[in-house]
Amino acid sequence: MSWEAEVAELRRREEMARRMGGPDKIKRQHDGGKLTVRERIDQLLDPGTFHEVGAIAGRAVYDDAGDLSDFSPTNFVFGRGRVDGRPVVVGGDDFTVRGGAADAAIWQKQVMAEQMALELRIPMIRLVDGTGGGGSVKSLEMDGRTYVPLLPGWEHAVANLSMVPVVALALGSVAGLGAARAVSSHFSVMVEGISQMFIAGPPVVARTGVDMTKEELGGSDIHIRAGAVDLAVATEAEAFAAARRFLSYLPQSVYELPARVAPQDDVNRRDETLLSVIPRDRRRVYKTREILDAVLDDGSFFEMGRMYGRSVITGLARLDGWPVAILASDPYHYGGGWTADAAHKIARFVDLAETFHLPVVHFVDIPGFLIGPEAEQAGTIRHGARALAAVYQASVPWCSVILRKAFGVAGAGHSNHTRLRYRYAWPSGDWGSLPLEGGIEAAYRADLEKAEDPAALLQQIEGRLNKVRSPFRTAEAFLVEEIIDPRDTRPLLCEFASLAAPLRKAGPSTFGYRP
Ligand SMILES: CC(=O)SCCNC(=O)CCNC(=O)[C@H](O)C(C)(C)COP(=O)(O)OP(=O)(O)OC[C@H]1O[C@@H](n2cnc3c(N)ncnc32)[C@H](O)[C@@H]1OP(=O)(O)O
């Protein structure tokens, strides 16, 4: 006697599970421009690598003879697979089964997916598409009771943030717990016009007197500007590509180091445009991303969070093949000043670099924190202090390139000066506690008030001080270590990346990622 009958029953049940919510619900999914959870997993992973766990878990109906007559699979599909040959855990909501609602979920599957990533020390990829934990509404009728909310397995989801890379792709309507799962990640993506995210959806919000569509309430444009998610893309395929690309810069877990790829670009490439990219007129702006393209390995810059805290640019890149974290000022927004949003973005990004042992290269043009009533009302200094803490606690190798301004307390966040200052300044460098513009009025206030012609005196003081603000004066006193020809930036940064590589230490960081 063999076990052939049981194996056949297993295959029958697996087949029933693969039907998901049935043809109508699958059609609704496709008509809405969305893939099913199983199609998503197939497209995300290397072909043929998905090993599903708990495939036949669900709600079964038995006939009087005790035989299975109907089966509705649980609406969470998970297992192991490979991305670019490296193992990952992937877990996705099945919207075709009661909209991914909790009443059709077996929560232990989500818990185990997170636990599997944590214990196997491999990245976690969440494909979120569901109504969240709000399924208690239907369970009232189905089970005759509701529950006191708890977040099963949340401890694993949070622990993963300081242990393995976590990517969340919000691929449909994502509410409540689903939204929390989407943003409790290192990198999150939404699909424009197809995915929406909210704490509670339109029917719930309508009870507060606000009548909005899903897109108006929680479209991707809202969340990339609010900093809740990092990227919006046009298609699900682009979301999968973004997840794969993000993971390519990172180690499998904090116990490994980010891997070098075969260098594709000349280390000694000197870009002539760098000599004139910073305008001599300090009030004029320039395009930081062009500088990044000129000095980083060709095509290697992967920006994250572009639409949020826009005075700061954050992203991953490579230098001579080594993965690095890039922090850079963008003078197009608040002159590169640190707003509350920018400070929050910096803190989260530096924590990411610290957690996964990515050396940081900081391209600095910081006039200071944003000043004025708007900044005070936003609690800028509170968020700014958190950003400074992240910079000063980071133990990863750090190199700063001062492109232009470094002023005030925020300017002091250009690097951690308690460690070896690995720092270069371009000849356009300009620094101090307060910029002369406005600073003179504050420091020479009494003199200006007494003067017969305050405007003339102001001009005179300004002329006097402008003569001594040259970066060479600072270099004379060794208060800035090296002023460089901007065209030498790439060779010097590639040298930094290779000197930094052996200094990276695998293992959990004391000051790792904080959600
Ligand atoms: C603890 C927490 O997580 S609180 C979470 C709070 N959750 C919410 O606010 C979500 C409320 N629901 C919604 O806003 C909407 O249903 C959306 C935006 C999620 C989806 O809207 P639509 O795309 O128009 O889909 P629709 O409204 O038809 O719902 C899809 C399915 O989800 C189910 N569903 C939606 N919300 C819930 C809920 N709270 N409880 C149980 N099932 C739900 C629907 O019954 C439907 O099931 P079906 O496929 O079997 O017909």
UniProtKB/TrEMBL annotation:
Keywords: Ligase. Residues 266-505 form the CoA carboxyltransferase C-terminal domain. GO terms for molecular function: ligase activity. Its EC number is 6.-.-.-. InterPro entries: AccD/PCCB, AcCoA_carboxyl_beta, ClpP/crotonase-like_dom_sf, COA_CT_C, COA_CT_N. It is an enzyme of class 6 (ligase). It holds the Pfam family Carboxyl_trans. Residues 1-264 form the CoA carboxyltransferase N-terminal domain. Coiled coil: none annotated. PANTHER family: PROPIONYL-COA CARBOXYLASE BETA CHAIN, PROPIONYL-COA CARBOXYLASE BETA CHAIN, MITOCHONDRIAL. This is Acyl-CoA carboxylase subunit beta. It comes from Ferrovibrio xuzhouensis.
